[in-house]
Design a protein that fits this description.
This protein is of the alpha+beta class. About 45% of the residues lie in helices and about 15% in strands. The chain has 15 helices and 14 strands.
Length: about 475
């Protein structure tokens, strides 16, 4: 009894329905189940290796070449080349999972392999739909009884996977291996003793170009449509209320969710969760009954819909009167320092020359100046740009007349401040004796002093300009 009975798992019942909601891909893979047709194809075709050369690639059949040519006309060539270079190996895992780049033959091959094995998912989906649609009321009531036991005693969740394995996998496999004797009396006992009389079952992938292969394609097509419809419907219902396109409405949703979160955090242990889940499960399954669905739809149209519109009107009125938002964008003040340097020449006696507009005042004790570096910035006022994510709110720069304040805020020492006029802040050049006293610690360095005396100004001077900026949407977010 070494043979194996191959069983194909495929949905041979009615197609998986494609739902329709009010409003509005590709893959690939090779590997087919050995058969007479497949062996003939393999004899007439040759294998290709994938880009890394570690394993055989998909069989280069006529279908592969046709499908690849079609996709090459749809997908831009440069995009294929870019995706082909994105293959990486996951080094964070101990298994070294390889993630190959995009390849049309590999995608085609993987899709065929996937479609040949996806039937078990459609069978499970179809059985769930039968269970919820009350096709067999005894099955649905049995499910509700089991659900009730789990809700009343959640510890049964640990028993459920083991029971499913025993009753859905082990027992049917044993019955297949030890079939009962043919009899006309249903009361005859089942004989579990004796050697196995039948080969064990084996789940295999469906053969290509068979009826089951196209049934899987049909159900996969409908599932993709279902997902697209549900995705679009969820986005149309949730996103307008949560993405702050309508800020008063989204702010109201945020307020209610925050309040609900706080209440549940404090009182969730007081709620009868078992009774809540039990009632919700029974109501959901009962609402799936065809006759009850018609009654619920009629009650919704006659009673709930008018009150829903009235409640929406109350909510809009409350939002309009109680939700107050800032209409003006966020603004901040930015600064730039105009640096000038005293230039000595034979024709001039220490004239000041514009040097650079910098974000740093380049004071005598700044790290850049101590290390001997030059100030960084731009030579012209017009080249000064706002910070990333901001734009100018004023048309021009304004000279900061409170030069003494920003010097004290930065605790700048060794400078001379103009409190009138152009508000320059000069470096102080100390006398030789005073400088030696400062080095020996006998003297005291003054933080700053008003510009009254002449001949004590150093090599650099600076003054502060300010300008208002406001927030703007970065170009990457607009894209």
């Amino acid at each position: 009894m070494d043979e194996y009975t191959a069983e194909v798992v495929v949905n041979r019942d009615e197609p998986i329905p494609a739902i329709s909601l009010p409003s509005g891909e590709d893959t690939s893979g090779p590997d087919v189940v050995p058969g007479r047709r497949h062996r003939l194809k393999r004899a007439l075709t040759h294998r290709r290796t994938v880009s890394d050369g570690q394993r055989d690639g998909p069989v280069n059949t006529l279908q592969d070449r046709i499908f690849a040519k079609i996709l090459q006309q749809v997908v831009p060539t440069e995009e294929i080349e870019r995706l082909s270079e994105m293959g990486v190996k996951d080094t964070t895992s101990s298994f070294q999972v390889k993630r190959p780049g995009f390849s049309l033959p590999l995608m085609t091959s993987n899709f065929r392999r996937f479609n040949a094995r996806i039937g078990v998912v459609f069978v499970f989906q179809n059985r769930i739909l039968r269970l919820l649609s009350w096709r067999y009321p005894t099955h649905t009531l049995s499910f509700l009884a089991l659900y009730s036991f789990v809700c009343l005693d959640p510890n049964l969740l640990t028993v459920l996977p083991v029971a499913v394995m025993l009753l859905s996998v082990m027992v049917p496999s044993f019955v297949t291996r030890h079939p009962p004797p043919p009899t006309n009396s249903p009361t005859d006992p089942y004989a579990a003793s004796g050697p196995p009389l039948a080969p064990p079952t084996e789940v295999k992938a469906v053969s290509e170009m068979s009826g089951d292969f196209f049934r899987n394609l049909r159900d996969l097509q409908n599932c993709m449509e279902d997902f697209s419809q549900v995705h679009d419907k969820v986005c149309s219902l949730i996103l307008p209320r949560t993405n702050f396109s309508n800020e008063p409405l989204s702010s109201t949703v945020f307020l209610f969710l925050s309040a609900t979160c706080c209440v549940l955090f404090l009182a969730s242990h007081l709620l009868p969760w078992r009774a809540i889940f039990l009632a919700a499960g029974w109501f959901f399954v009962a609402a799936c009954h065809p006759k009850l669905q018609r009654s619920l739809r009629t009650a919704h149209d006659e009673h709930l819909l008018p009150r829903e519109r009235q409640a929406q009107g109350w909510l809009n009125a409350w939002i309009e009167h109680d939700i107050i938002l800032d209409s003006s964008p966020e603004t901040r003040e930015v600064e730039i320092f105009e640096l000038q340097k005293r230039v000595w020449s034979s024709s001039s006696i220490g004239e000041w020359e514009g040097w650079v507009f910098s974000s740093s005042p380049y004071d005598p004790l700044s790290s850049t100046r101590i290390s001997g570096g030059r100030p960084h910035g731009t030579r012209f006022f017009e080249d000064v740009r706002p910070p990333p994510g901001w734009e100018w709110a004023d048309k021009k720069w304004t000279l900061d007349l409170l030069s003494k304040d920003w010097v004290e805020e930065r605790m700048i020492t060794g400078v001379e401040v103009e409190t009138e006029g152009e508000r320059w802040v000069y470096d102080i050049v100390y006398a030789i004796g005073e400088e030696e006293a400062l080095r020996k610690g006998k003297g005291k360095r003054r933080d700053w002093e008003e510009a009254r005396e002449r001949g004590k100004k150093g090599e650099w001077r600076r003054r502060r300009w300010v300008r208002m900026v406001k927030r703007r949407v970065p170009p990457k977010m607009l894209q």
